[in-house]
Design brief:
With 107 residues, this protein is mainly beta. The chain contains no helices and ten strands. It has strands spanning 2-8, 16-22, 25-31, 37-41, 55-57, 60-62, 69-71, 88-89, 91-94, 97-102. A hairpin with a 5-residue loop joins β3 and β4 (37-41). The model has no long low-confidence stretch (mean pLDDT 95).
Length: 107
C-alpha cells in the first residue's frame, strides 16, 4: 500500500463524493457532513455499480441502484440488499491535500 494523492481538500464540500481512479483501482473519496474524508472501493458489493454516484447522509453512503447503505468508516453494509462490506482505505489530509493509502497494482 502507498499513499496516493486523491484531491485537494477544497475539491469536495461536506456531503460530496468523487470518483478517483488509480491504476487498477477506482476509489470513492467522500467528505462526510462533518467534513471528515473517507475512501472506499467505488463498487457496491450488491449491484456492482459506482458508489460515487450515490448519496452521502451523515457517515453513510447509499447506493443509487438498490438503496443499500454503507458505513463510511468500516465499509459495513447497514441495509439490504447488500450483505458484504466494501473495502475501506486509510485517508491522510496534509497541506490541503487528501491522500489515500491504496494498494499498488502488481505487474
Amino acid at each position: 500500500m502507498s499513499a496516493r494523492f486523491a484531491c485537494a481538500v477544497g475539491d469536495l464540500a461536506p456531503g460530496e463524493v468523487a470518483r478517483v481512479e488509480f491504476p487498477g483501482l477506482a476509489v470513492a473519496v467522500v467528505r462526510d457532513e462533518d467534513g471528515v474524508f473517507h475512501a472506499l472501493e467505488d463498487r457496491c458489493t450488491h449491484g456492482n455499480v459506482n458508489l460515487s454516484d450515490g448519496e452521502v447522509d451523515g457517515c453513510t453512503i447509499e447506493c443509487w441502484l438498490h438503496g443499500s447503505t454503507f458505513d463510511l468508516r468500516t465499509g459495513r453494509p447497514l441495509s439490504l440488499p447488500a450483505t458484504k462490506p466494501v473495502t475501506v482505505y486509510p485517508v491522510t489530509v496534509a497541506d490541503g491535500r487528501v491522500f489515500v493509502d491504496a494498494p499498488t497494482p502488481t505487474t
